[in-house]
Structure formats: C-alpha cells, structure tokens
Amino acid sequence: MLQDIFEANLEKRAKNLFVPLNGKKMIAFIDDMNMPIKDIYGSQPPLELIRTWIDYEFWYDRKTQAMKFVKDMYLLTAMGPPGGGRQQISSRLQSRFNLINMTFPFEHEICRIFDTMLSQKLQHFDDDIKYLDQIITKATVDLYQTIEKKYLPTPTKIHYTFNMRDISRMFEGLLLCHKIVITNKVEFLRLWIHEAHRVYSDRFLTTNDHDLFIKILSEKLA
After folding, report:
1. What is the bridge-based pairing of β-strands 17-20 and 58-60?
2. What's the pTM?
3. pLDDT tens digits, one per residue of 207-217
4. Helical pair 133-150 and 164-174, crossing angle rounded to 10 deg
5. Pairing state of beta strands 17-20 and 67-70?
6. Domain 107-221 class?
7. Where are the domains of the chain?
8. What residues does the Dynein heavy chain 3 AAA+ lid domain cover (predicted)?
C-alpha cells in the first residue's frame, strides 16, 4: 500500500513523530496519481491518505488507529488527463497542489521538429531515400496518434502510456542509420518497421494487442 511505501523511508523520532531517514528531508514523487480506481462511494483511498496528510500532517496506524505525524516530507506528483484508466481526482485534493499544466504541441510543430532532423540526416543518401523524410515523419506521428487512442492505460496495463518520447525514440534509431548499410527505399522502410516494433510492440502484453499493432502498422505502410 501507499502508506507502507512512505513509512519504509521514515524513522521514528518521538512517540508519534516520524521523519525521513538519517535526518534528511524527503521528496516523494507519485507518477500517474489519478490511476487508483474509485470505490463504490466515488473516493480513491490512496489519494484520501495523501489529502489527510497534506491537511493535518498525519495519518493513522492501520493496526492501532494511533496518529502518526510525518514531518519533513514533500510531495511532487504527475498525471495525465482523465481517460482510459485515468480517473478524475477530487477538486478537494486538487486544490491542495500548485498546478503546472503542460500542453501537447500541435501536430505540425512535431512534424517540423523531426522532419528537420531527418532531412539533414538523409541529405547524403540515395535519391529514392532522400525524399522520404516528410513521408516517414508524417507516418511516425500518425502511428503515435493512433496507438495513443487504441491502447489506453488500465490498472493491469498501467504502462500503456505514450508521449513524445516514443516519437523521439523512433527517430533516434532512424538517425543512427548509415548510407553504406541502408542503400534503398525498401531497406529504410524495414528499418522504420523495426524501430516501430522496438518502441511500441515490445510493451504490449497480449496477442490481441500485438495483432492490432500489426494491423495498424500495415495501414500506415499502405
């Protein structure tokens, strides 16, 4: 449980006072904070624990019901917009945080960034490869957008979260190619398929997810 994870990094200072180990201050980072499933009453128990500590600086011992005050601990959290396996957190909890909202860039901005890098890389390749930069860039961004919509995170597939790092990882592999090895358009497309499998397919858990990915990839190549 979340409380056990916190307490594993705390030590008892007084009767009911707990602080980080070795007299240090602790920053606890909670990623995907809105993933806990809501119970039948609409609450999210792990998040209620966090809210209780923020408001009162203590939580209860689950065995003795004694109060445990926790000092010198700070919270840093991150989460994506509600949808898929992500829940809407309560306004009561959200009001306790200072919020920073990072918006996703527009598609044409993403394409311009990665097309610039790829076109420079392909300048010294053969002509049938050189002019693939815009096509490959658009296909890579389209692939990401499709996968983001089709593969939603759930409590059993919490790692099904995709962002611009996945696009970057695909281009990272493409930019490592050498004109001595990649000599024609077919070989470059094979490299693109390989990078797509490396970045996305290796993360899928079920046969159905893999089959769907093959179908999506085939549509992009068509």
Report:
1. unpaired
2. 0.61
3. 998 999 999 99
4. 140
5. parallel
6. mainly alpha
7. 2-94, 107-221
8. 139-219
